[in-house]
């Protein structure tokens, strides 16, 4: 047991995919009804800071807002790069813990326009770290164990694996895309604040998440919706790239466990131990979606189109998560079959959410960048 207060938690990016699932989890609200995951035991307050980019949607938290808004849950629309807004929020809510999800998160977007990634992922993380350091008045001579800054990162910072081997916490960083380079940079700055200024931090690097509320630009929701709408299924290159998939609630339980009991200054890898070649995953997804949506799987398979490969496309990601299992007793609970089925059902039954996120800015972006691919 740590001495952390964990009373007034600042969650950044809480309107995005993982962040909104995290806040729902903390307040016992399950998007998919998988109640066995709702055991956070949290009894404090959460302040959600999100500037609502195309990927942020406050509706993801309507249940939490209704039940806890103004008492234990507060939403602040602000940019993490806006130092004065972040300073004001730290003071107003007497923040003792930061759980930092906010980021530009999509690799393809980072290839088309890296600037927002550099700003949010690097400058935004720096701004939060620096405000936390000053607000908590920490230094190497004045270390504190009652406050914590937890940084959420990705396995993509480690680069690309060959056919064998796993990323461990000591694998050297070797990012390839503007997204992973900006996340790698933010990880280094977080560690620098620990070593140089004594800021109490923990850091986690996770594999590919899937589940409800993921913006339909990422592989799994994009494919489910394209199938439902009768559109082509664009596979980059041969589709042989491998990703390790984890259900979002398993990731979020791990994050909460690290925040509660992780050792200050340490990083933890989180993985699903669930590697899939993209093309094989798509086959599985076609089988499940066709069944749930009443489609003919063989007809759907005919809509697979191999499109131009992503530049610098990492071949394989796979995480060794022995450390968090051994030291914190964390374990993945969701099987892929069950998690994917819940996810497919969720996307097929949330038409209104999908229409909203697919309108406006998103559609304009897709039209201008991806029209030729579909
Ligand atoms: P997302 O794109 O769905 O959500 C990001 C959220 O951050 C959005 O609500 C957005 O409005 C907000 N945001 C963006 N820029 C902001 C800014 N400048 N100020 C305030 N808010 C801002 O992303 P996600 O998939 O939920 O990822 C969350 C975190 O988890 C990221 O740090 C990402 O790098 C990391 N991660 C994601 C995955 C994955 O598979 N999605 C895997 C490992 C790690
Ligand atoms: P993605 O969901 O974008 O996650 P990441 O790039 O962060 O791993 O993509 C997952 C894999 O699927 C990746 O290898 C790229 C591939 N992919 C496609 O083949 N087609 C698509 O339309 C998308 C979005 C991704």
From TrEMBL:
NCBIfam families: dTDP_gluc_dehyt
Name of the molecule in the record: dTDP-glucose 4,6-dehydratase
Catalytic reactions on record: dTDP-alpha-D-glucose = dTDP-4-dehydro-6-deoxy-alpha-D-glucose + H2O
Documented EC number(s): 4.2.1.46
NAD(P)-binding domain location: 10-341
Major enzyme class: lyase
Organism in which the protein naturally occurs: Treponema peruense
Key words of the record: Lyase, NAD
Pfam families: GDP_Man_Dehyd
Assigned protein family: Belongs to the NAD(P)-dependent epimerase/dehydratase family. dTDP-glucose dehydratase subfamily.
Gene that encodes it: rfbB
Listed GO MF terms: dTDP-glucose 4,6-dehydratase activity
């Amino acid at each position: 047991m740590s001495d952390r207060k964990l009373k007034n938690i600042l969650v950044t990016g809480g309107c995005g995919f993982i962040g909104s699932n995290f806040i729902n989890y903390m307040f016992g609200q399950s998007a998919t009804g998988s109640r066995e995951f709702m055991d956070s035991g949290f009894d404090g307050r959460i302040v959600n800071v999100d500037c609502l980019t195309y990927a942020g949607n406050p509706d993801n938290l309507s249940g939490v807002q209704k039940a806890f808004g103004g008492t234990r849950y507060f939403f602040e629309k602000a940019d993490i790069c806006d130092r004065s807004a972040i300073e004001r929020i730290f003071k107003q809510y007497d923040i003792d813990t930061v759980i930092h999800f906010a980021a530009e998160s999509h690799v393809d977007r980072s290839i088309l326009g890296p600037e927002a990634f550099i700003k949010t992922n690097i400058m935004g993380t720096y701004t939060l770290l620096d405000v936390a350091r000053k607000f908590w008045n920490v230094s190497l001579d004045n270390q504190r164990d009652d406050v914590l800054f937890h940084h959420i990162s990705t396995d993509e910072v480690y680069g690309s694996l060959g056919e064998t081997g796993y990323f461990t916490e000591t694998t050297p960083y070797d990012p390839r895309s503007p997204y992973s380079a900006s996340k790698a940079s933010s990880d280094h700055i977080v560690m620098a604040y620990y070593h140089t200024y004594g800021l109490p931090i923990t850091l986690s690097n996770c594999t590919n998440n899937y589940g409800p509320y993921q913006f339909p630009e990422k592989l799994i929701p994009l494919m489910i919706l394209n199938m439902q709408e009768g559109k082509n299924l664009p596979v980059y290159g041969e589709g042989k790239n491998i990703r390790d998939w984890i259900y979002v609630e398993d990731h979020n339980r791990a994050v909460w466990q690290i925040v509660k009991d992780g050792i200050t200054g340490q990083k933890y890898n989180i993985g699903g131990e669930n590697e899939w070649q993209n093309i094989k995953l798509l086959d599985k997804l076609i089988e499940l979606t066709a069944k749930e949506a009443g489609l003919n799987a063989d007809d759907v398979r005919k809509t697979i189109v191999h499109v131009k490969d992503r530049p610098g496309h990492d071949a394989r990601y796979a995480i060794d998560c022995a450390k968090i299992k051994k030291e914190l007793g964390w374990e993945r609970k969701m099987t892929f079959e069950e998690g994917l089925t819940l996810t497919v059902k969720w996307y097929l039954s949330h038409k209104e959410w999908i229409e909203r996120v697919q309108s406006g800015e998103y559609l304009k972006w897709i039209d201008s960048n991806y029209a030729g691919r579909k």
